[in-house]
Specification:
Elements: H1 16-23, E1 31-34, E2 38-44, E3 50-56, H2 62-72, E4 83-89, E5 92-98, H3 105-110, H4 118-136, E6 142-144, E7 153-155, E8 161-163, E9 170-172, E10 178-179, H5 192-197, E11 199-200, H6 202-218, H7 233-239, H8 260-273, H9 283-309
Antiparallel strand pairs: 1-2, 2-3, 3-5, 4-5, 6-9, 7-8, 10-11
Length: about 300
């Protein structure tokens, strides 16, 4: 299978032997997880570099493969997972990424990996926001991710967050929109306005990020199907602004150890991200607000420790 790849990215091409060497012939013991386009394996290249390798075997996802190579081959940012190489072998495709050793955000929020502290959550949010800000203002055109969700937010050794999985991403002129023939994305994270008008632009990513922000605050899934009356997370959060208390929205795992001021600031920011498209903040404005919330939290903790010491 021959794919029309951009000439600038040809230096990334890796031989199939390197893929098989790195993963011990795609051994099940190296299996990490599975996405819509294929399975992901942990591997070690011949140069001793630890990597994650996505194996795409469904012909229907060749477009996904091409888009990731095209969009990520030359895009570099500390908060984007680095694409290190690709392999095009017969009917199979492989994408090679840097390995993020602490898994994905979903595992930490909903799994049994442990508990992320309040400041860690804010730092993860800042990292993601910076990554999206970079994508939306990229010099070659605005890159709209279109699938921001906890499983696509990977965590490095120091819990630094990196956006991953650019299979649905779309490059458009900055400030412009693209008319999509079909709604793409993940249930619960897709902008309702995009579902209606099919217009792809940066505001859709802002909405998805707002949902992730609500999940960082609450530790809840996008919709609780176990509840007697299931309600989307965004609607639940918004209902609390009409006379309710947002304290009850905080993740119980935090055990109250967070700055109330920073929590409210972040909560209101999340609601603005999920508001009407024309009223949503840009990602640089989101970064500023989150950095403010982080500074408030750090200063509050320092003040508390100082008083405790006295």
């Amino acid at each position: 299978m021959k794919h029309d790849l951009p000439k600038k990215s040809r230096y990334l091409k890796v031989h199939i032997k390197e893929i098989l060497y790195a993963t011990n012939n795609l051994d099940q013991s190296n299996y990490i997880g599975e996405g819509t386009a294929g399975k992901v394996y942990r591997g070690v290249l011949s140069n001793k570099q630890h990597v994650a390798i996505k194996h795409i075997i469904d012909d229907g996802f060749v477009e996904t493969f091409l888009r990731e190579v095209r969009n990520l081959a030359l895009v570099r940012h500390p908060n984007l997972v680095t694409l290190l190489g690709y392999c095009d072998y017969g009917d199979e495709c492989f994408l090679i990424y840097e390995l993020c050793t602490n898994g994905n955000l979903s595992e930490w929020l909903f799994g049994k990996n442990g508990v992320l502290s309040w400041t860690q959550r804010l730092e993860i949010a800042v990292d993601c926001a910076r990554g999206l800000w970079f994508l939306h203002t990229y010099s070659e055109g605005c890159i709209v991710h279109r699938d921001i969700k906890p499983t696509n937010i990977l965590l490095g050794p120091n819990y630094e967050a990196k956006l991953s999985d650019f299979g649905l991403s779309k490059v458009i002129d900055i400030g412009e929109t693209y008319a999509s023939s079909e709604v793409r994305g993940t249930f619960g994270y897709v902008d309702p306005e995009y579902q209606g008008d099919r217009q792809v632009n940066a505001a859709g990513d802002v909405y998805s990020f707002g949902i992730v922000l609500l999940q960082l605050l609450s530790g809840r899934r996008v919709i609780n199907m176990n509840a007697s009356k299931p309600m989307p997370l965004e609607r639940m959060a918004r209902s609390l602004t009409k006379g309710g208390s947002i304290v009850g929205f905080a993740d119980p795992k935090l055990e109250g150890e967070y700055s109330a001021e920073a929590f409210k600031l972040t909560f209101m920011l999340a609601l603005s991200c999920t508001g009407h498209k024309q009223e949503r903040p840009s990602m640089n404005q989101v970064v500023e607000k989150l950095e403010e919330a982080h500074n408030i939290s750090v200063n509050a903790k320092a003040s508390y420790l100082h008083k405790a010491k006295d």
